[in-house]
Amino acid sequence: MAKVRAALIQAHANMPKEEAIKKHEELIGEAAAKGAQITCLQEIFFGPYFCAEQDPKWYDTAERDDGPTVRRMQALAKKHKMALVVPFYEEAQTGVYYNTAVLIENDGTVLGKYRKTHIPHVGPCFWEKFYFKPGNLGYPVWDTSVGRVGILICYDRHFPEPARALGLKGAELVFNPSATVKSLSRYLWELEQPAHAVANGYWIGAINRVGVEKPLNEAQFYGSSYFCDPRGRIIGKASETEDEVLVCDLDMDMNREVRNTWQFLRDRRPESYEELVRELP
Description:
Elements: E1 3-10, H1 17-33, E2 38-40, H2 68-80, E3 83-93, E4 96-104, E5 110-115, E6 121-122, E7 126-127, E8 141-144, E9 147-151, H3 160-168, E10 173-177, H4 182-189, H5 192-200, E11 203-207, E12 210-211, E13 221-222, E14 226-228, E15 234-237, E16 244-251, H6 253-262
Parallel strand pairs: 1-2, 2-3, 9-10, 10-11
Antiparallel strand pairs: 1-16, 3-4, 4-5, 6-7, 8-9, 11-14, 12-13, 14-15
């Protein structure tokens, strides 16, 4: 059987940017020491999740996709011979910002990037349209050393369409780095993504950060990062409160087994779905 050892990193990040990056460099090293072949970090990993307030000062934390943080992560991927999914705040040009993740191969090569497509503007603390332009790169899937990998970011997980798009493109492992709080989404956390895994016949790695952060102050990030198999079963789960490197062995042969059993992709009727893509009045 084809096995892939994968890791998810959840962490407190209520700290200055450089301190957060150094902390995650150590955690990436821990994942590598445990034999991970691919590791995913949490949404905009290099500091607090600032969307609880609307303040232009946070624009200064954004970087280009070939900026210093991505270059540091490329060097780490090459050093550890481990692929990395690195979510960061991207400056495409002055005044144009995206919530982005780059996929770095185990030789340090950047294979591509995904930009968060669905941008929330909901209470109690996610005023994201102030900071992020909706993604414009579609839903790419990349051939990697561990199989075909796709990425969704946080709020994207609430929509079945992007999860299906990745399935149609042959994704075998999908990562969803997130920053979400207990009062809003805890009841959905282990409901939606296992359903996506079942509907599309792939593995999911779901990441959430932990702790209470400024400027959020009150709402709690609840961790509970997990891996879910193509049958919707959670096979490994991190704590609600602690920094953790969650490492699991994923049986990639299960994708084929599940897809051949259920044949959901064969039995789709896209010609009957026209209503799904009509604009609301």
